[in-house]
Amino acid sequence: MKVLHVNTFDNGGAAIAATRLHKALLSKSIDSSMLFLYKTNNSLPNSYGFINTSNKTYGFINRQLFRVRNKLFPKFTHQQLNNQKLQNRAEGFDIFSFNPTDFDITTQKCYQEADIIHLHWIAGFVDYRFFQTNKKPVIWTLHDMNPFTGGCHYSAGCEKYKTECKNCPQLEGTINSDNSFLDQEYKMLIFQGKAPIITAPSQWLMHCSSQSKLFRTFKNLHIPNSLDLSVFKPQNKSFCRSALNLPQGKKILLFVCDNIENKRKGFDLLVEALPKIEQTNVHICAVGDRNISFTSQENITFLGRVYDERLMALIYSAADAYVLPSREDNLPNVMLESVACGTPVIAFPVGGILDVIKTGFNGILAHDISSESLANALTDFIEDKYIFDNHAICEDAIGNFLPEIQTEQYLSLYENGELV
Predict the structure, then answer these.
(1) Is the pLDDT of residue 304 over 50?
(2) CATH topology of domain 237-400
(3) Which residues contact 64 (CB under 8 A, 6 or more apart)?
(4) Which residue intervals of 55-152 are DSSP H helices?
């Protein structure tokens, strides 16, 4: 059995989750491979970058004729046309992706040799016309809402994906706010009689998918992500702090600020919450984007972007709590990594976070999505309202996110289309 995983990028949250599954399958001697549109990592085994087989070599005269023709009758790519649809879109939203695309994965050798096609985050890569020509079994793991919406990756509370994506609030100001409806109808047309098996890492995303107009008649299953528990595990806090030059005697709150401009990530709420708490014995450790403005720069350590998983495991173990202020989220890798290291998570009660975090056991859930509630949750943590057992937090993570559990479930799907 040969399994091909397909993802647009080889980096980012979805790519990390897909790669971890790929590696876990390889460790079980399953013939697994990965296809990326944008491939930058040459060390990942059995991975391939998309090869555009439509590229041809033309003679000098033909090249000149093509240039003249393109000037007189310009032919736009799907990507260019999709970008035009998003001009003047309001800032602050997550990305928005239309179909169709300019690529056909069925032309790739790794696709042709595969028995099972496992799609992951495929925006801008896999044209949905693929489902009409493909004859192989398809598993599709959702990493956000885009596959069943009119283009948004997170709906910001909008539920039009359940009926019709007309007058999209995220397309206000663009050339046509109903382009979302046209994209949704295009997908509906494609999926007539074509039903891949849908899996979602979180109960929340599975619930959204099963209620959507596009996927409500499909098989929707819940399979959480896994992670390398030989890397993400509790380590000596004092040693980790010394290695990272972090203070020993203070409570350290960790957060990752990869994209502070994305409103969904909730960084603005964290900035508003921090001045509302007593910080005399609190130190902030930030990983990611350095373009951050706080009311005070005291008691803050910026570690910059970190790509090494073993270094991130040290950082989680050095912290007393990880702060995750997302307004919407699926099953964040950082949340799983933190609890696997025995570090509690302070977050809002949204999405897949509700699957994992239990107030008083492995973190604290704020009462609602506001800076005031986040400040209250942070205060409860700082004032030791709850006593956390780092070992118990880690053991719970092992029981839920062991790679063997995930691989067994997917192998069952690959072989008979049902979960064990």
Answers:
(1) yes
(2) Rossmann fold (3.40.50)
(3) none
(4) 60-72, 78-85, 109-113, 130-133
